[in-house]
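Checked the freezer inventory, then went back to the computational side. Two predictions to log before the end of the day. The first one is the construct we discussed on Monday; recording sequence and tokens without edits.
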Amino acid sequence: MARGLPVFRFAACMFAITVAVAAPALALEEPSSIKPVPTTPMPGEFTFAAVGDLIYLRPMLATLETQSPDMMKLLRGADVTFGNFEMQAIDLAHFRGAPQAESGGTWLIADPRVVDDVKAMGFDVLSLANNHTTDWGVEGLAETEARLKAAGLISAGTGRTLQAARSPRYHDGSKGRVALVATSSTFTPMSRAADPIGEIPGRPGLNPLRVDRIALVSKSQLAVLGELAAQAPGRKTQQSEGTVRLLGAKYRAIEPYSGKITFSYEMDEQDLSGNLLAVRQGKQNSNFMVFAVHNHEPGNDSDVPADFAITLARRAIDEGADAYVGHGPHILRGIEIYKGKPIFYSLGNFAMMNNSLDALPRDMYEQYAVEPGSRTVPELLQARAEKTFADPRLYESVIAVSRYVDGRVAEIRLYPIDLGVNVQGAGRGVPRLADPTVGRRILERLQSLSKPFGTEILLKDGVGIIRIP
């Protein structure tokens, strides 16, 4: 035994030396030398259907089946169908949370049975990142996530931590794997998810894309604003690099000045890089990558996308996205084909049943100086709608069906839908395929909005067609 010890020590010593020598080979290479991960596109023919916001608050499957069966065939006929689930599906009778002090505009609450409706309508993947994500707190978000998962629906854009909210989610279908990354630039402050650090736990919420708004004014206007900022408390930090900060807002000069204030946006670099990394990973682990972005900027009355959305969409496709789906402003915005991939800057609304609410938090009554019990909920919502949802464009949209062949887009078909701008009562905001007159109006508007991006939309038999060479 005594003579065996030196042999053991020698062997142990050699093992230690071997590990010490081999260990560096396990380290990652420098970023500039990391090789791209090979990916395989969706084989053969593959169709991807996309719509905008689902503010679908009560189960209406039977009605939709009767009123617009062809629309249902479109949604169910695609290999994968996407929409933005912009509401909380919770059972108030058993809900242990509460409406938050700040909502995304209205405290949207859906009958839990709508989850089964959405599944039966043909939807497969959904975004949960939007300005209504935490109307009913993280408790409402958790219940909604759980109900969607139980129904077999894939949702992205939210989670128990930032990493979870930002991570790609996957739908494994008959033709291959689809990845979804979802984010929002429009959200209430409490909605933003956070990662844990040390003993501090993570915070549930959405995957954010923070943007800094900058008002563009004339040089003379900027000079006046600069003088005012110089007189404000903390004036040493009010001006820097041609930017004036005043009362929480940023201003810069633009030449030539159009005579009307416009806005530019700067994306938070950490949020931008984190989202693009998630897109790249999603592409590497799937056959088809969708990047969904909820943004209202520069405003719900603007049918032109904010400057940052254009930059973001193109960079996402550079990182591997096969489709960029924008939603949020409730109206259509243009379509761009970038490197052979579609960018839908906004698909408007698919359903907008916010007039169907039967219960509202007290905060809503206070906002409109209405005494609870003096008005019905529909009367209060009608007063709100006349101020914020009167624009007829909010009730006209499209279902976009993109046909890919071996990973390349061959054709996009745009089916106009009518949400009933002239319909009163329970039918308002309920989608159906548009009649020829309304449909042509919708498609001609989308033609005009897409033209600045070099996109040509042909009109044939009530359908818009984009053909990609």
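The second is the one RB wanted added to the comparison set:
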Amino acid sequence: MSKIITVILAITAFFVISANAQLLFEENFSYTAGTNLTANGWTAHSASGTNPIKVHTFGLTFPGYASSGIGLSARVDSTGEDVNRTFTAQTAGTIYTAFMIRVEKAKQPGDYFFHLSTSPLSSAEYFARIHVKSDASNNLAFGIGKRHTDTTFTNFNYAVNTTYLLVVKYTVVSGDNNDQLSLFVFNTSAPATEPATPTVGPISPASADPANIGSVALRQGQAANAPTVIIDGIRVGTTWSVTIPTGLEENISRLSTNPSLKISPNPFTNYTEISYNGNLQNFKNIKIYDATGNLVKTLSEANTIWDGRDNSNNLLAPGIYFIQVEAENEKKISKITLLR
């Protein structure tokens, strides 16, 4: 019983800590492949209708990232329409923006393909511009700049046709000409906490700060410089943990009542039956996590029985667990309590 109380207290503490954290924006491109982004909630702000940005035919995945493997993606090519979506404008604090990216092609001069702006978007205020460029051997370097001319790049440590997770950190600093920017580039997994040292930054270019941060934008630059990239899973939040939720935080943030996912009995002692009656097309698996977010069991059947053991057939300790069903374009999560 003490273990269960401890877990409940931990979850309560999480909600208290997260009370002021906000997920401001999430885009998983769960639309019909081949349709224009402007038909799916995005607004064109430049070269409207010229080589429009479309929903791509597949989505991206990245280990540990909450928006991994959901929906499809957007393919941003060189020259053409630029689009944006707005969220609640932020005038103070820190704004985190994360997205998965796969670079198909980059040029040696390089150019930016993603940026933040105001709400509503102002063509005079493009900030946190994310660049990519290649060297003579086709290795990639990512960069971040407040404006177009103050970009700071990583080393050429990255490869084409590889999925990375990029996180942009924008901190509003009191006064003018002093907001701070940082860029994190991850190639293995999404970290649960913010690393002490970013890949680039923090930088604080001496140029005018925006009136607010309230939109994300995808850009298709000039053919001579612009890259071709696939972008997926855009998330904007006011804390690292709400923007890049992993483990317990991801499970709680997605916890909901799901009629298509039935668990009986719950709580259970010896075994429970798990039944997923939703869309079985492209059903992947059922995953069971403990309260700290560790994966303890993977089940391959949509209708199955779980006896409270982990993947090594060890009996698990009593407590709260989270059951996640993955099927086409969706994840269903419910809470379950194991008794002994």
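For RB: Confidence is low (pLDDT under 50) at residues 1-19, 247-257. The first helix runs from residue 2 to 17. Let me know if you want it refolded.
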